[in-house]
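Researcher: Structure prediction, please.
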Amino acid sequence: MITLFNRKELLITMDFNKQADVRGILSANKIPYIIKTINLQNSQVVGSHRGRVGNLGIDQEYSYEYKVYVHKNDYDKAMGLINMRVSR
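Model: Predicted structure follows.
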């Protein structure tokens, strides 16, 4: 079980396909993971810039940030698998 206290950040990306590839690698190797998705266009504060001007001109491809976490004991194995895949 992955908790706040035993997890380690494996990857931060804004690329949907990259995070999907990483999830596939982790799943194929039976490494548990957690994905935290952050909507960067979401107005958290009343009166934010987006609330005044909307999202005109903002590249929607960069609207989300994906953070992938694994158990700290699985970090080295997961990083090795991801690096091996990227280097091919």
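Model: Helices lie at 16-28, 49-53, 75-87.
Researcher: Thanks, that helps.
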